[in-house]
Amino acid sequence: MSQPTPPNLVQGVCGDCHGVEPPFLSPNPSAPSFADIANRQGMSEESLTSWLIEAHNYPELMDFELSESEAGEVARYLISLQSEDYEKAP
Ligand code: HEC
């Protein structure tokens, strides 16, 4: 299976802080990598999309707003990183 490529939006907006593609090393160490986020318990495309639209719940650092279609695109990409045998990097 080939690795999905992140949308430009993800690289441009999120990639400043989060590790958004392999090897998922976050430029900002306090920002979890996208693989970590995607593989958290109970993460779904729906929950992520609504979290991303309701920007008021963001960590203070995350100072941007996404349209509904952008949030959907980002959430789809994140969920595509879910993997049965994911193991969090130490
Ligand atoms: C300026 C830095 C920065 C940018 C840009 C940024 N983030 Fe974050 N993000 C963070 C930090 C730091 C955390 C961890 C905050 C915490 O744990 O309190 C975080 C946490 C998250 C979380 C997990 C929230 C949770 O419930 O713990 C998600 C999901 C997320 N970011 C998605 C995104 C997406 C999607 C983008 C791009 C559209 C993005 N972030 C852009 C810094 C950033």
Fold and architecture overview:
This protein is mainly alpha-helical and 90 residues long. The radius of gyration is 12 Å and the shape is globular. The protein has four helices and no strands. The relative contact order is 0.19. The chain has helices at residues 8-14, 34-38, 45-53, 68-80. The mean pLDDT is 90. It has one domain (8-80): Cytochrome Bc1 Complex, Chain D, domain 2 (Orthogonal Bundle). Bound molecules: heme C. Heme C is lined by residues 13-14, 16-18, 28, 30-32, 37, 52, 59, 61-62, 66, 74.
Task: Offer a few descriptive terms.
90 residues; mainly alpha; Cytochrome Bc1 Complex, Chain D, domain 2; globular; binds heme C
Topology-level CATH name: Cytochrome Bc1 Complex, Chain D, domain 2
What is the succession of H and E elements?
HHHH
Low-confidence stretches: none
Strand content: under 5%
- Counted up, domains total 1
Q: State the helical fraction.
A: 25-40%
How many helices? The count is: 4
Ligand set: heme C
Tell me the total number of β-strands. 0
Q: What structural class results from the helix and strand content?
A: mainly alpha
